[in-house]
């Protein structure tokens, strides 16, 4: 094998690794903006929206159509395990930390289309989006 062939193979492998790390199906997908969240919700009206904050936080105002399943509660995994894995699942919390955890857990459970709102409900409010009382 000559040097050009070795270099070409190495270069191809490197490109593959870079491409895979940027792939939209990666489990480390970034959070989506409020605008993207709204667009995805519009495109998938059957999506399951989960507010992963505490019940007290949820009761202070949430996104319309959201169900409250607290990611910090021991019942989170049993509750989300009953959901339809073929549907888009949209998660959010107060600012983005807990929803990232929820997204990872959902993906571990086999959910393949999980969307995490960047900035959480704080970002939603900052974008002047409607918040409802449950």
Task: Describe the protein in words.
The chain is α/β, with parallel strands linked by helices. The chain has 2 domains: 1-25; 31-126, Rhodanese-like domain (Oxidized Rhodanese, domain 1), CATH 3.40.250.10. It is built from 6 helices and 4 strands; from the N terminus they run H-H-E-H-E-H-E-H-E-H. It has helices at 3-22, 34-43, 55-59, 76-80, 97-108, 120-126, and strands at 48-51, 67-68, 89-92, 114-116. A 4-stranded parallel beta sheet has the order 2-1-3-4, with helices on one face. The longest helix is centred in the first third of the chain and has 20 residues, at 3-22. The termini are far apart. 24% of the residues are buried. Residues 7-27 have low confidence and may be disordered. Residues 43-133 form the Rhodanese domain.
Topology of this structure?
Blueprint (H helix, E strand, L loop, with lengths): L2 H20 L11 H10 L4 E4 L3 H5 L7 E2 L7 H5 L8 E4 L4 H12 L5 E3 L3 H7 L8
Parallel strand pairs: 1-2, 1-3, 3-4
Q: What is this structure, in a nutshell?
A:
With 134 residues, the chain is an alpha/beta fold. It contains six helices and four strands, in the order H-H-E-H-E-H-E-H-E-H.
């Amino acid at each position: 094998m000559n040097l050009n062939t070795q270099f070409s193979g190495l270069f191809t492998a490197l490109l593959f690794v870079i491409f895979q790390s940027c792939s939209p199906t990666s489990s480390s997908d970034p959070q989506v903006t409020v605008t993207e969240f709204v667009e995805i919700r519009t495109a998938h009206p059957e999506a399951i929206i989960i507010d992963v904050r505490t019940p007290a936080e949820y009761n202070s105002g949430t996104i319309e159509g959201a169900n409250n399943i607290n990611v910090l509660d021991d019942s989170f995994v049993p509750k989300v395990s009953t959901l339809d894995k073929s549907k888009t699942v949209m998660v959010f919390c107060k600012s983005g930390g807990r929803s990232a955890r929820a997204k990872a857990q959902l993906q571990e459970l086999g959910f393949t289309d999980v969307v995490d709102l960047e900035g959480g409900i704080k970002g939603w409010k900052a974008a002047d989006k409607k918040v409802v009382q449950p």
